[in-house]
Design brief:
This is DUF554 domain-containing protein. The chain crosses the membrane at residues 6-24, 33-50, 56-75, 96-120, 140-169, 181-201, 213-233. The chain has ten helices and no strands. The radius of gyration is 18 Å and the shape is globular. The chain is an all-alpha fold. It has helices at 4-22, 28-50, 56-73, 75-90, 98-110, 113-124, 129-149, 157-171, 180-205, 218-233. Helix 3 (56-73) crosses helix 9 (180-205) and helix 5 runs antiparallel to helix 7 (129-149). The termini are far apart.
Length: 234
């Protein structure tokens, strides 16, 4: 069952969010410090990923053109509108903004190499170990996020399952379409570009910046285009 890894990831996020709700009555100072700690850890993770590029010019071009496309499409605004709609339907229950929780958690859980590599492993080899590992990390992160950002975190499970599930679905025939060298190059540069985005999320979590990270997401597609062009010309 090639969708098992994605399903487990979504379930762990849901469980983590519910557990976080149980511990939401912790002191406000503790919540703030915990959020800073998460932000710092996310920044370090993003920095580690960002340094893995073999050609950092690809990362720069991907993020620049991705930002232009994202701003033009208003992806961050669209995500916030969806979160606000959920907030109107469900309410905040006095604990955080559903919109903020949904958008922040979605960006943290979706961006990164583990989602893509795990989806590819699930689809190509039927190996869910990467997504199982990601599920544990995401579940714990959802628990912490839910204590400060509220129930909105739980809705991030939907795009996570869809994203990883679609990757696994199309990966079943990917070996017949994409050369291994091209795929490995894309994963490397995508990891670096995604790492910069994750670093920006960490900055946002600590309150140092308000980067519209969702508007950088088209950079992943731009990365694939640039890597493919360089591969064909090489």
């Amino acid at each position: 069952m090639f969708l098992l890894g994605a399903a487990v990831n979504g379930i762990c996020i849901i469980i983590g969010t519910f557990l976080g709700r149980l511990f939401h009555r912790i002191p406000e100072n503790m919540k703030t410090t915990v959020m800073y700690a998460i932000g710092l850890c996310v920044m370090v993770l993003g920095l580690q990923m960002g340094l893995k590029s073999d050609n950092f010019l690809i990362v720069i071009l991907s993020l620049v053109f991705g930002a232009v496309i994202g701003e033009f499409l208003g992806l961050e605004d669209q995500l916030n509108k969806l979160g606000n709609w959920l907030e109107k339907k469900i309410g905040t229950s006095g604990q955080g903004s559903i919109s903020q929780g949904f958008v922040t958690a979605t960006l943290i859980f979706v961006i990164g190499a583990m989602a893509i590599i795990g989806g590819l492993d699930s689809g190509i080899r039927g190996d869910h170990s990467v997504l199982y590992t990601k599920s544990i990390i995401d579940g714990f992160t959802a628990l912490i996020l839910a204590t400060t950002l509220g129930i909105g975190v739980i809705f991030s499970a939907i795009p996570v399952v869809l994203y990883e599930g679609l990757i696994a679905l199309f990966a079943k025939g990917i070996n017949n379409v994409i050369p291994e060298a091209l795929l490995n190059s894309f994963i490397t540069e995508m990891t670096a570009a995604g790492g910069i985005m994750i670093f920006a999320i960490g900055l946002n979590l600590t309150g140092l910046t308000k980067v519209r990270v969702a508007n950088l997401l088209p950079g992943i597609i731009v990365t694939a285009i640039i890597v493919t062009i360089l591969y064909m010309w090489g």
